[in-house]
Amino acid sequence: MRSHLVTAAFLALVLCAAPAASSRAAQVTFESLVREMTDLDALASFPDPAFDCAQCSSYDRRSTDPAVLTDENWFANGDRGHHIRKETRNGADEWVMLDAEGPGAIVRIWSANANDAGIVRVYLDNAPDPVIELPLQDMLDGEHAPFLAPISGVRSRGWNTHLPIPYASHCKITASNPDFYYQVNYRTYEPGTEVESFRPEMVQASQELLEKTRRLLANPDAAPQTGPRATTTYRETIAPGANIEMRLEGEGAIRNITCNADARDLERALRQCVVSIAFDDQRTPAVEAPLGDFFGTAPGINPYTSLPCGVRDDGTMYSQWVMPYRQSATLRITNHGTTPVTVEGAVVTGPREWTSRSLYFHAKWRAQFDIPTQPRQDWAYLAVDGQGRFVGDMLHVTNPVKDWWGEGDEKIYVDGEAFPSHFGTGTEDYYGYAWCNNERFVHAYHNQPRCDGPGNYGHTCVSRFHILDNIPFSKDFKFDMEVWHWADVKVNMAATSYWYARPGAKDGFDAIDPADLRIATPPPLPEPKRVKGALEGEKLEILSVTGGNVTTQQSATWAWSGEQQLWWMDGAPGDVLTLAFDAPEDRRFSVEAVFTKAIDYGIMQLSVNGKQASGPMDFFNDGVIVTEETPLGIFSLKKGLNTLTVKITGANEKSNPKRYMFGLDYLLIIPVKETS
Fold first, then answer.
1. DSSP-derived pairing of the beta strands 360-372 and 287-290
2. H helix intervals, 435-540
3. Is the peptide bond before 324 cis (omega within 30 degrees of 0)?
4. pLDDT tens for residues 77-133?
5. Fewest CB atoms less than 10 Å from the CB: which of 15, 52, 172, 323?
6. Any idea of the CA torsion for 397, 399, 402, 406, to the nearest 10 degrees?
7. How many CB atoms lie within 10 A of CB 88?
8. Radius of gyration of the chain from Cα atoms?
9. Which CATH architecture fits 233-354?
């Protein structure tokens, strides 16, 4: 019932707030943008009308100068609760997330904790009233029209929407609460471009198109093939050091590539076989990547279905990137391994006119082994000189410890920018999920088809495809990702970048060194150390919680017993968490506990069986630390079930914005020696 009420309220509001319709035909409309969401063919031409794509986010505003490579400056990590400014409207505060001069369009919104944002308002064309006004979670959860799955939705705790919101001259987005993570990706068209601003009747008029788009995004490998097609099949066993080659003649475009591979060690073969594609007899191939990495799976076969590429359940790898050429295309698969590899599949081509706006497809792979995580550094995915547009990437990380490797932010520079126009809030946020979650997820635009664990240990494969949020560039493009790991270790990273570019564009990639075509084996994990007699926080029964989320956090860095703690997030003052623990007999015990302190942890009042421990405890600290065994007091415990109650009472004055996390490593109950 709530869904219907929210939808009705939404439509009623925007109908009242909508500006008058333009009498002139618009070049950019809600419907044209929805069509772009699944139009891979359009990516193969420079956009017309031209636009820039940028991002506003809650990144830590202490990051100001790329010449000062410190944690306090360029790698600052407090990426929550930062906004452009605070405004007051009708006596209430609103925090501005985006303030963009148009014409333009919102093309992506993400959050890690949308439930903390409160009401989000979208103001278009300097109108005094919002055209959209609803809880951010209702915009992003995929359950409320018109923001329905899979266009919107929560994946591995990341909240996303890709529903476009066009505007003629200006867009401002605000939130009623400041304390949340966000990213807003938006286009800005050239001045004079006609853009029809979003109105609710557009949604109603486009229902058929929206339903078709939703169906295709839910099953992106089922896109219908239109127009004449020619298919070239292949099946070959490639000996070590040998290759197979296919040459396509005449003006046209590659529309689809499929490949199945078989080898004694398939995981290694997919890395050691390299696919290259040269268009129009290019001296340097525009595509050069390990076979598995090119299709977005590494290491090994990891089924997922996205719009431009994926892996079917039967192991068939597919690419639907459109690859135009004027005269010819030459595809080659080379076996750099030591054992034969059998490959079979098909290359589908179709007619496509080469024009002044046509772009060559590019896909290049870069790997680096034993990258130190201290000191922090920016690791380059891609650097291009020329004109084109960036359309996606895949990342494979080998992590040697049970600790989060992806705290780093993406930094994207376009056309000589001194400061990145995309500055993110964490690697997992860029890939559309949140909180270093190791759950597998699959979507048309972003995926995590592999994450070994435990605790993000081992191999992880993630991808993101920029379809509606592709990033055009006229002169140059640079993509860096921070190497930001909670532990001081060495990691291995391999990234495949996908982009389109005009003839003559240059990238910084050298030819692949066969010595790099390997898959590192992460070292075996030691058994986690446990404190004798400890009642582990993460194993305590949760009897009740009035707000927020209680989960288990895993890390080898902080020396938690068993390398885990109970972690309470997203609570607010007044919220109460009640945990159960057992005592072996009826008697008095001294109760002690080990906690975590950090910059986003709150002030708590603890009680045992309803009896308060000593006054409220402040768990704020500028850095993450684990406390000593801290006495809570002497309590009469019952044999069997007893309770530990934690109540949020506030936050340290240094916490800005205020946050209220709580972490419990373990309890100790020590019998009190009674005297006669």
1. parallel
2. none
3. no
4. 989 999 999 999 999 999 999 999 989 999 999 999 999 999 999 999 999 999 999
5. 15
6. -40
7. 8
8. 27
9. Sandwich (2.60)
- The mean of the pLDDT values for the chain is 94
Architecture of domain 362-507: Sandwich (2.60)
HSE (CB half, 13 Å, CA atoms) of 221?
17
In this structure, what are the phi and psi dihedrals at residue 319, rounded to the nearest 5 degrees?
-130, 130
What are the backbone dihedrals phi and psi of residue 89, each rounded to the nearest 5 degrees, phi first?
Answer: -135, 125
Q: How many CA atoms within 13 Å lie on the side-chain side of 582?
A: 6
As given in the structure block, the two tokens for residue 130 are 């919002």
pTM here? 0.90
Dihedrals phi, psi of 313, to nearest 5 degrees: -60, -25
- Rounded to whole angstroms, the Cα distance separating 169 from 195 reads 8
**Pair of tokens at residue 613:** 């421990």
Alpha-carbon distances, residue 269 vs 239, 298, 463 (angstroms):
12, 11, 21
Q: Which amino acid is at 410?
A: E
Q: Is 213 exposed, middle or buried (0-12, 13-18, 19+ CB in 10 A)?
A: buried
Look-up of token digits 């992590």: 399
CATH superfamily placement of domain 535-671: Galactose-binding domain-like (2.60.120.260)
Tokens of 515: 């010595």
Strand residue runs (E) in 531-671 = 535-536, 541-545, 549-554, 564-569, 576-583, 587-597, 603-608, 611-612, 617-618, 625-626, 630-637, 640-650, 662-671
Residues 166-222 have pLDDT tens digits of 999 999 999 999 989 999 999 999 999 999 999 988 999 999 999 999 999 999 987
In whole angstroms, what separates CA 22 from the centre of its chain? 37
Distance CA 63, CA 482 (A): 12
Q: Nearest 10 degrees: CA dihedral of 550, 554, 560, 561?
A: 90
pLDDT in tens, 177-191: 998 999 999 999 999
Asked if 666 and 579 count as a contact pair (C-beta separation under 8 A), the reply is no
Q: Show me where the domains of the chain are located.
A: 2-48+80-219, 233-354, 362-507, 535-671
Bond before 299 cis per omega within 30 degrees: yes
The number of residues making up the chain comes to 676
DSSP letters, 253-315, are EEEEEEEEEE-TTHHHHHHHEEEEEEETT-SS-SEEEEHHHHTT--SS---EE-SSEEE-TTS
Please tell me what DSSP assigns to residue 380: E
Which of these, 460, 466, 462, 410, lies nearest to 79 by C-alpha position? Answer: 410
How far apart, in Å, do the first and last CA atoms of the chain sit?
65
Gap between the Cα atoms of 110 and 433, Å rounded: 9
Alpha-carbon distance 666 to 534, whole Å?
Answer: 6
Is the Cα dihedral 288, 292, 293, 299 positive or negative?
negative
- How far from 91 is each of 87, 88, 131, 178, 488, CA to CA, in Å? 10, 6, 19, 16, 48
C-alpha–C-alpha distance, residues 592 and 576, integer Å: 20
